[in-house]
Amino acid sequence: MHPIERLRYLARSSGADQRVLVNETASALRALRMDPAGLVVSCRRIVERHPTSGPLWWLCSHMLVASDPSSIARELAAALELDPTPAFLADSLPEDATVLVIGWPDLAGEACLDRGDLTVLTVDADDQGASFVRRLERSDVVAEIVEPNAIGAAVLAADLVLVEATAASTTELMATRGSRAAASVAYCSEVPVWAVLGRGRCLPDAAFSSLVTGVADVRVPWDATVDVVPLALATYLASERGVLPIGDVTLSPECPLTHELLRPTR
User: Fold this and answer.
1) Which helix (H) or strand (E) segment is 204 a member of?
2) Sign of the torsion angle spanned by Cα atoms 238, 241, 245, 246
3) What pLDDT sits at residue 146?
4) Which SS3 state, helix, strand or coil, does residue 188 take?
């Protein structure tokens, strides 16, 4: 497939694992060996078509300020593949715990698949929950599907709630719809909330605000395709540094703020 066609395919794709998406995008951009202006346009189009992907913004931001974009793309794609967050999370989850997840989270899902002793309650968000339950059952993990209107009851039946960020600022997380409701009920009911923040997902505040603007209309906020969840609702944060109490963590952006990505393509 020609690199241009590959980029078009990636721009149209949805629901892919973030690590796969970044790896494929990095490979396609490297193959183009384009001039700086062409790279800017391609990066803008990619992040516009995937407005919930922190890792893609992270990749494109670093490429746009790098003296050798091709090399940095290769390094970042490799770094994302080696993200230790799922392993830290799998090691830290309590034995025989009942955990609640929303949809099919990339990193938290991998951790659940690695732990055969868990019971996973999966909220059927964005039509991904049922597929995740089937995947868990094939790995002999006990799993049950939860309808979105039963989030409250499911939270009360869980030992902890996992909320995975697709992107984050220093104070908020962008997560699958239903995550804020689950985290809020858990917070009020003293059920622990573990925020899951993989490598490459914490962005500068202005970049995060740009992503939120791209997926939410202030006139009809209930039509937003994602939830914005205050980090203050979390009890622990699982990241590449391990699983730590939220009070012991200070987040900082993992990429520069590139103003070129804040401007829409014409």
Assistant:
1) none
2) negative
3) 95
4) helix
Q: Which residue type is seen at 83?
A: D
Domain residues for 191? 85-248
Identify which of 199, 179, 170, 191 has the alpha carbon closest to the alpha carbon of residue 101.
179
The domain total for the chain is 2
Cβ contact 73:52 at 8 Å: no
Can you list the pairs that 155-158 forms with residues at least 24 positions away whose Cβ atoms lie under 8 Å? 155/100, 155/182, 155/185, 155/186, 155/189, 155/191, 156/185, 156/189, 156/191, 157/98, 157/100, 157/121, 158/98, 158/99, 158/100, 158/121, 158/186, 158/191
CA distance 58 to 18: 11
Pick from 173, 167, 169, 170: nearest CA to 195:
173
Of 82, 99, 130, at which residue does a domain stop?
A: 82
For residues 61-74, b (16+ Cβ closer than 10 Å) or e, as one string? bbbbeeeebbebbe
**CATH code, 50:** 1.20.120.420
Helix (H) or strand (E) holding 102: strand 98-102
Roughly how many angstroms between the first and final C-alpha of the chain, as a whole number?
26
Q: What is the mean pLDDT of each run of 10 residues along the chain (266 residues)?
A: 49 65 86 75 88 94 92 94 96 97 95 95 89 93 95 97 97 96 97 98 95 79 88 97 96 94 73
E strands, 134-208, in order: 142-146, 160-168, 172-176, 193-196
